[in-house]
Amino acid sequence: MAHDSGLREAEVCGLRRHRIDWKTKVATIADVLEPDGSIRAYPKEKERRIGPLSDRTTAALRAAKLRQGAGEMDFVVRRPSEAVMSTRALGTFWAYQVAKVTAFKAGRPTFHDLRHACAHRLVRSGIDLRTLQAFMGHKSLNTTRIYMPDVTTDELSAALRAVQIPTPAPVVAIAGT
What we know:
Number of strands: 5
Largest sheet: 3 strands, antiparallel
Strand content: 5-15%
Shape: elongated
Strand order of the largest sheet: 1-2-5
Order of helices and strands: HHEEEEEHHHHHH
Number of helices: 8
Radius of gyration: 23 Å
């Protein structure tokens, strides 16, 4: 979910079923789960935001909903024996899954790396900076800029060619006119 939607760890843990619009595949991010297990309004006292959900995420959430079989107010991500999964438990579970299937040697990955991977994937697909800012839920455009790659000389040259006004062909005088 975090890799496809860019949601923060606390947003994933605080997401409840009744906040998902299954038809439009959008989650309203209104609650986050604090490390102490308490729920509070959207991060950093911001207003609610929406998070688009991919087809893959939506399918996985629907399957989990069928397996859990509980009410609509339940948390989307939870341990089988508990009503909720803490951010620490989610991060540990994710790191364990990565270690199990890969020979990850570049330091210990964090759950937040999924959010960064989502942003970088969107940039590579050509998303503009303002749309990425909204998608990631960043208040400041400067926060979003960290995902923008350095511009190459070839890219600068291509941009210049795209905006150049063509030089008109020279007018040739025809003798005798």
